[in-house]
Amino acid sequence: MLIHERIPREIFETILHLCVGFETPVRDLVTLQLVCRSWHDIVAEASFLWGTITTDEGSKAFHKALQMAKDSLLDVIFIDEGEIEASHFFSLTGDKMNQWRSLSVESSSMAYVLANMRAQWPPNLERLHLNAGYDDPSGEEEIVLFGGTPAVGLKDIRLTWVPINPASLQLSGLKSLHLNGITAVTATEVVQILIDSPSLEILRLNELHGADLPTESTTTKPDLS
Fold it and tell me: Rounded to 5 degrees, what are φ and ψ at 182?
C-alpha cells in the first residue's frame, strides 16, 4: 500500500504542503505531481496548496497558481523586480481580495504599487509586510490604505520606509509590530497601538523620526534667585 493510501488524506496534504518552498511554490508543486498519477490528482485537488501567489516565479507560474488556488486563502507576494507589472498583478489578485490572508510587497515605487490597494479592507488579512527599501518617505504624500477602514483581524504588520501612518489603520490586537523609517507616526500613536495590543509578542521600532521625544525640556524653569 502506497503512503498516500496509508494515512488520512488531510494529513498527507499537510505533508505535501511542508514540502513546498515559499520562493518556488509552483515549481515544487509541479514536481510533486510528477511522482505518480495519484499524487498529481491529489495536488491538483488540494487548492490550498496553491495559495502562495508570488511574482518570484514569473508570469506563467503566477497565472497557474491563481487559477489552481480557486477559493482558498491566499498569501500574496509582490516583488517589483520581475516581468509582472504591478497594475496587472493587483488587477488579478485584487479580484480575490476577500481571500487574502497575507500581503507582502517590496518596491521602491511603493506609492504607485499601493495605489492599487486603496479600496476596502481585505476581511481575512492577518499579515501585512510593506518594504520600500531605504528611501526617506518624509517628503511623500501620506498613503491611506484600504480607504481608511480599520484593520480588523490583522495580527502581524511590518512597515519599512513607506509613507503610511499605521495609526490610520486603527490597529489593535497585534501579535507582531515592526516599524522602520516610518516618519508619519507620533510617539502618542505608537503608545496607543501598544495599549490596544495587550497580547503583543514582538516589537521592533527603528528610526521613527516623527515619534522622537524633545531633547530639551519645554517647561519653564523656576527662578531660584
Answer: -95, 105
Q: Taking the CB of residue 60, how many other CB atoms lie within 10 A of it?
A: 10
Give yes or no for a contact between 87 and 55, defined as CB atoms under 8 angstroms apart. no
Task: Give the chain's count of helices (H) and strands (E).
Answer: 8, 7
CA-nearest of 165, 23, 12, 215 to 104 is 23
Q: Which helix (H) or strand (E) holds 195?
A: helix 187-195
User: Residues 154, 171: contact at Cβ < 8 Å?
Assistant: yes
d(Cα 213, Cα 98) in Å, to the nearest integer?
40
Q: What is the pLDDT along the chain (225 residues), one digit of tens a residue?
A: 667 778 899 999 999 999 998 889 999 999 999 999 999 999 999 999 999 999 999 999 999 999 999 999 999 999 987 788 888 898 899 889 999 999 999 988 777 777 766 667 888 999 999 998 866 555 667 778 877 788 889 999 999 998 888 888 888 999 999 999 988 888 899 999 999 999 999 999 998 876 654 444 444 444 544
What kind and span of H or E run contains 148? none
Q: Can you point out the beta strands (E) in the chain?
A: 52-54, 74-79, 100-106, 127-131, 156-160, 176-180, 202-206
- Taking a C-beta distance cutoff of 8 angstroms, is the pair 165, 183 a contact? no
